[in-house]
What we know:
Helices cover 20% and strands 28% of the residues. The chain has 143 residues and is an alpha+beta fold. The termini are far apart.
Amino acid sequence: MIPSVHAxxxxxxxxxxxxxxxxxxxxxxxxxxxxxxxxxRKIDEAHRENLGYHSPxxxxxxxxxxxxxxxxxxxxxxxxxxxxxxxxxxxSILVQVSRLIxxxxxxxxxxxxxxxxxxxxxxxxxxxxxxxxxxRPPPRxxx
Length: 143
């Protein structure tokens, strides 16, 4: 069961190239993160191609549920236990977040809009559906 959204906390784009997160608290006061990871392919050393997004997950952001930090590794909120959810469930969470979130910075507005686009097209790559139209050659003159 997906947690209900009591209070949105933040909307972010991760600096890994475009993964998206919506952090929120549930009715029970627990903190969760809707995470949609970007799926890329390396073209060369400086460029990557966006192939779309991986299926969404919900991360339990409770610090006591993450691996303990070490001298060489510090675990972020994204390191908590996670469960996969459907695109439909991700849409439901985003609808709740959109209704409840207060004032956003211009960047947060952009990221929320992008996140909505991603879930509305089930993680399809940018430009979908235009880039995925079936190519049909023009009819031949003798047809």
